[in-house]
Every structure is written in C-alpha cells, then in structure tokens.
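During data preparation, we tokenized the protein backbone, and the record follows.
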Amino acid sequence: MTLLGILEEFPLYMRQILYCVVILAVVFVAYKILMRFISRTSERLELAPHMVNTLRLMLRVLTVIASLYVVFTMFQIPTTIFVGGSALIGAMLGFGSSQTINNIVAGFYVLITQPFRIKDYVKIGDLEGQVEEITINYTNLYTPTFNLLKVPNTQVMNSRILNLTHEGFIKYTFTVNFSHDFPNAFIEEECISHAIEGFHIKHEAEQLRKPEAYLDTADRLGMSFLIRFFIPKGEAKSLYVLKPELLSMIMNRWNELKQQ
C-alpha cells in the first residue's frame, strides 16, 4: 500500500494536522535558510548591523504571517476570528503598551530614514554620544561619561539630531572663553595655537588631523574661541580623553601668559 493510500485511511482531522505540520516544517526550514542567506550576504556586502536587524525582523514577521495563513487555511478557520482577535490584541496593546508600540514605530522610522549610522557621533536633543547599536526600541549611545545610554526611539524621532561624523572624522567643536587681558590675535597665536601645536605633536598618531581655532564672539565681557577637534570615526573614547587634555593645555598656557 502506498503512503498516499495509508494517509487516506486516516480521519480527516488527522490528515489536516499532518499536512499542517509538514507545511510548517517546510516554512521553518525556509526561514532558517533565508536567515543564513541574510547573514552571509550582509557579511559579504558589509551591511550596517541595524540594516541586518531590520531584514531579520521583516523575515520573522513574514514567517509568522505565512504560518498563520497555513493554519487558518488547513483548518478552514474563518478569517473573521483572526480579524476580531487581532483587533482585541491591538486594543490590549494600545492600552497597555502604547509606549512600546510607539517605540517600535519610531524604530522603523529611524532604521529606514537613517539619520545616523553605527559608530556615528551624534547629538540628539541635549544628549550626545557615539551610536553603538540601533534596535527597534532603543538607540544605544556611548556617552562622554563612558556609559551606555539607551535612548527611546520616540525621543530620537522627536528630537533635533546633529550628526558630527563625516569624511571619516568626528568633527567636534567646543568653546573656550577669555577675558580682555590680551588682544584677540595675541591670544589666538600665543595661547591657543601654541597649545594646539604641542598637543598635535604629542597626539598626531591618535588624531590624524590638527585641531583648528576660530574667533567666535567678542564683547565687553570677553572673547570666545571655537576649537574644532578631529577624531577618527568610531573613536569616541579618544575624544572623551583628549578633549579635556587639550582644554587643560590651553588654560595652562593662558595662566602662563598672565603670570609673565
């Protein structure tokens, strides 16, 4: 007797269960194969981790939808049950987990629009740091306090974003204020440029590019200079260590000039 003949002797519900299990197994195997394909392709094309996570999430969602479709079709379950159940689940999620749902929607927005990428140094509202990971719920920042901060993606979407990373550098600018003890040209040449030159010679290997200084504002109370700092992309820890050192060298030089 053939396998088909044996199956025909089974009750209808048993055959439905068996067919359903076989089809779901095929769906599962296809899911595993596609997951492996995504991993290999992403490594070959050097895709960003957040793009890979998005592709994997989309595949999981499609697999769940396909599995539900198989079950509903095989057992001839009315789609009204699915629609009603989905509405009920949606209402429960809406009342009980609105923040989570908003984060997921905002996460898709961040992943699709890509206002920044992994290892970019950004300012998100009042927060700043190096982007370490972008998930559906959170964007993880490595902050100047050497901590990992999880920023909800709703906050990312609703905040002003300043990306300080381009051309392979973190281009970070900070302000130094001086009184009118000396002319601005003297301060720029003998204080700031002198300190920057010494700093650059000491840390040329870590920076690759010399810091720059510009006069920003000047009024009766004093002067403000912008110090433009260049650190290789992905080296936020170097930024957090070297920036205070440069500031300290500038202020030490300033105190030396005042004591002369």
